[in-house]
Amino acid sequence: MVEKEEVLRYVEDLIRLTGFSEKDGETLAKYRDVALKWANDVVKEFYDTLFSYEPTAKVFREGERPLREKTLREWYERLFDGKYDDSFWLWQWYVGIIHIKRKVYNRYMLAMMGRVQLAFLRKALSELPPDEAIELCTAFKRLTDVIAGLIAESYHLTYIYSLEAVAGIKPALAEKMMSLHLNRELEKYAPRS
Ligand code: HEM
User: Fold this and answer.
1) Ligand 1 center to 97 CA (angstroms)
2) For the chain, which has fewer Cβ within 10 Å, the N-terminal or C-terminal residue?
3) CATH assignment of the domain containing 149
4) What's the gap in Å between 102 CA and the centre of ligand 1?
5) Residues 3-13: pLDDT tens digits?
6) Cα–Cα distance for residue pair 7/107, rounded to 1 Å
7) Residues with CB under 6 A from ligand 1
8) Which of 42, 51, 71 to mutate to test the pocket of ligand 1 (most atoms within 8 A of CB)?
């Protein structure tokens, strides 16, 4: 099981490496009103994309779209609060776990995070002076990169820990056995000249 303190350490890694700062939080809060006006279009593009592609459309249950649009909108709006406390970061961790349950692979999540970032960039460039758009989009990108990293890490680690737990394998033994397996995978995918 991954402890909450550990999750918060991963958040520190991601904040440090992306360069997300308090100033970015202030920028996001400053543009909250304008950014919330873009929510409908961002959410629509997100779900139009997922529902128009069979592998991602089949992730959803019959009639689920309104509910999913509501949660994504809440998530989007929360980004502009300017306050990112432990419960905010742990919520992003939770998203990774729920994605495992619903078979939302990280390749889907990461591709869609990129799409959200570009939809946001288009909106900002069309409605704000260029220097303000750059400042806002930089803050948005850093925050959503931290989140994408966290969701991906949550998916990855929770998946592995759950497998170890249900199979009753000790992590150290699993690591040793994996090392042998990884050598075979490396061999298979090694670039040939
Ligand atoms: C930018 C990437 C994504 C973000 C930020 C995101 C965010 C979220 C959030 C906030 C929730 C709700 C968690 C809660 O209940 O509090 C959620 C749940 C869910 N997401 Fe994602 N998501 C992303 C990508 C995707 C993709 C690509 C799919 C489908 C292919 C997807 C499918 C789902 C489903 C089915 C649930 C519902 C889980 C449940 O309650 O049963 N998500 N996601």
Assistant:
1) 10
2) C
3) 1.10.490.10
4) 9
5) 999 999 999 99
6) 21
7) 50, 56, 59-60, 68, 71-72, 75, 95, 98-99, 102, 104, 108-109, 112-113, 116
8) 71
CA–centroid distance, 152 to ligand 1, in Å, is: 12
Q: Give the count of beta carbons closer than 10 Å to the beta carbon of residue 55.
A: 10
Which residue range(s) make up the domain with 29? Answer: 4-189
Question: How many structural domains comprise the chain?
Answer: 1
- pLDDT at residue 193 greater than cutoff 80: no
- Does residue 174 surpass a pLDDT of 90? no
Write down the pLDDT at residue 169: 84
Cβ neighbours for 19, distance < 8 A, ≥ 6 positions apart: 142
CA 95 – ligand 1 centroid, Å = 6
What's the Cα-to-Cα distance from 26 to each of 135, 137, 144, rounded to whole Å? 11, 13, 15
**For the residues 54-58, what does the mean pLDDT come to?**
98
Q: Are 78 and 88 in contact (CB under 8 A)?
A: yes
Tokens standing for residue 11: 């958040």
What are the CA-CA distances from residue 142 to residues 116, 122, 134 (Å)? 13, 17, 12
Angle at 10 between CA 5 and CA 15, to 5 degrees: 120
Is the Cβ–Cβ distance between 66 and 178 less than 8 Å? no
